[in-house]
Amino acid sequence: MNYLKYLLVGFFFGIVLTKSEAVSWYRIYEMFQFQSFHMYGIIMMAIFVGTTGIQIIKRNKLKDIDGNLLIVQDKEKGNARYWIGGILFGLGWAMVGACPGPIFILLGAGFMSVGLILIGAILGTFLYGVIKDKLPH
Q1: Gap between the Cα atoms of 99 and 88, Å rounded
Q2: Taking CA 42 as the corner, what is the angle to CA 36 and CA 45, rounded to the nearest 5 degrees?
Q3: pLDDT tens, residue by residue, 45-77
Q4: Is 109 helix (H, G, I), strand (E, B) or coil?
């Protein structure tokens, strides 16, 4: 019963992404072809909301639902790994037309071929876990 709130947030997230067409392969294709502002607008709004939320948390010293102080750590120095990770993420997104969240939304909408993408994402995550100690962090 404790996980019901997460399930409800997940449903809400799925509805918002579906209605905004953020899970549409066509919209993603348009974005990577620089033919439409639609997806860039969604991404910029998410950055704005996230940045504003983080600033509100930091400035007001907000607490979580259990009363613990929310701590947002400062960004690490050196950002090569973020560039590499971002490029790999973007290439995967461009190749399959879906990032992790929409994979589950598309499966729930009945697009069963996305199951292959989910298997690839799980295998990629497993592979990272196997080799992460050998990577320069």
Answers
A1: 12
A2: 130
A3: 999 999 999 999 989 988 888 888 888 887 777
A4: coil
C-alpha distances in Å from residue 85, one per residue of 17, 53, 90, 109, 137? 23, 24, 8, 29, 12
Q: What is the pLDDT of residues 105-137, one digit of tens each?
A: 888 888 899 999 999 989 989 999 999 888 776
Q: Name the pTM for this structure.
A: 0.71
- Rounded distance between C-alpha atoms, residue 42 and residue 22, angstroms: 8
What are phi and psi for residue 63, nearest 5 degrees?
A: -115, 155
Alpha-carbon distance of 22 to 17, in angstroms, equals: 5
The amino acid at 108: G
Cα atoms in the Cβ-side hemisphere of radius 13 Å centred on 7: 4
Distance CA 111, CA 11 (A): 17
Question: Would you state the structure tokens that stand for residue 42, as one six-digit string?
Answer: 């969604």
CB within 8 Å of 89: residues ≥ 6 apart: 99
